[in-house]
Amino acid sequence: MSVKIRVKNRRVYLDIYHNGIRKWEALKISLTEDKNTNKEILKVAEICRAKRELQILTNNWGLTDPVGGNITLLSYITRLRENAKKERLKKNLYCALVHLKAYSDGGNIQLKAITPQWVRRYYEYLEKERGLKPRTAKNYEVTVRVAIRKAVNENLIPADPTTGIKMTKANDTDRIYLTSGEVQKLADAVSKHKYGELIKRAFLFACNTGLRISDLISLKWENISCEPLQIIKRQLKTDVNVFIPLNKNAWQIINDGRIHNHSEPVFYELHKYHHPQFVKWICKEAGIEKKVGWHTARHTFAVMSLENGVDIYTLSKLLGHTDIKTTQVYAKATDKMKREAVEKLPELK
């Protein structure tokens, strides 16, 4: 293992050879025409070289990085966002950065200075002072927690300060869904809006398949298998492959009797008209007054599936959930419906 200073085209680099691999890291400093100035620049470069060598050595021995813990939480999350591959993760990290910058000294705190007390105060800040809904606040709490735990795994800090701290409790039982009768009302309704039929077809298709709006927009005919009749698609949010059988309702919605190009979208131009407001319009035209959005169709698919005997494990696979606990919230919803149904039985005299 070696770390040496190299100069190329006046730019200063670190030449690192470790575990049989050589790579150069730019220090983002350059030499000048002045010899005295260059001496000072090379002194700085030597300090950087020594720190980088120390980092590699401590990592080899499983010790805490004495340098990495000095960087701020803001800088660390910014770096994670730059290296993130999934768009969903990038978005969550961006939102976490926004809230950290607004928090008093939130982004400027060093990784090694984060304490359980700081984490607890930050969680309270998200929900109470920022006024975020519990589900949204929990989402950003999870993002920061994941970032801190990654810092622990990289030996930047010795222990996880988020351990044992409860996150904001999100109420998962108030998810809005349509009943089978309301789904039928929507199917029977005729929309007056120019693209109302497109929105209605896509929404009803989601009620029968559980697809998210992002997957509806990106759904192409190459994702539709005819033997057997099913959807084979990698979900954009979770990057998980799903295999969803198409029932008669779903197939009738998209089957127009034509032969389509594999790269052609199933719902043409849906990317232009996918704002939740369009869903509210078509539901209002059908006489449905619930507060609906695109995700309501996914909730509807889940609840109707459970009501018709689909087990929770199978439903989890159909929805593409990576954790079955996420699917269990729908079981709570059906339990509530069962209770309401039993209570409606006529009273004996």
CATH architecture identity of the largest domain: Orthogonal Bundle
Instruction: Give the strand content.
Output: 5-15%
Radius of gyration: 27 Å
Q: How many H/I helical runs?
A: 13
Structural class: mainly alpha
- Describe the strand arrangement of the main beta sheet, using strand numbers: 1-2-3
How many beta-strand segments?
Answer: 6
How many domains? The number is 3
**Mean pLDDT over all positions:** 85
CATH superfamily heading of the largest domain? Intergrase catalytic core
Could you tell me the CATH topology label of the largest domain: hpI Integrase, Chain A
Q: What would the principal axes of the Cα set say about the shape?
A: elongated
Question: How is this structure best described in words?
Answer:
It contains 13 helices and six strands. It has helices spanning 35-60, 73-83, 87-102, 116-129, 134-153, 180-188, 196-209, 213-218, 248-254, 276-285, 294-307, 312-319, 324-343; strands at residues 2-8, 11-18, 21-30, 224-226, 229-234, 241-245. Strand 1 and strand 2 (11-18) form a beta hairpin. The chain folds into three domains: 2-63; 69-153; 180-343, Orthogonal Bundle (hpI Integrase, Chain A), CATH 1.10.443.10. The strands form two sheets. Strands 1-2-3 form a three-stranded antiparallel beta sheet, with helices on one face. Helix 2 packs antiparallel against helix 3 (87-102), helix 4 (116-129) packs antiparallel against helix 5 (134-153) and helix 7 packs across helix 10. It has 349 residues and is mostly helical. It starts with a strand and ends in a 6-residue tail after the last helix.
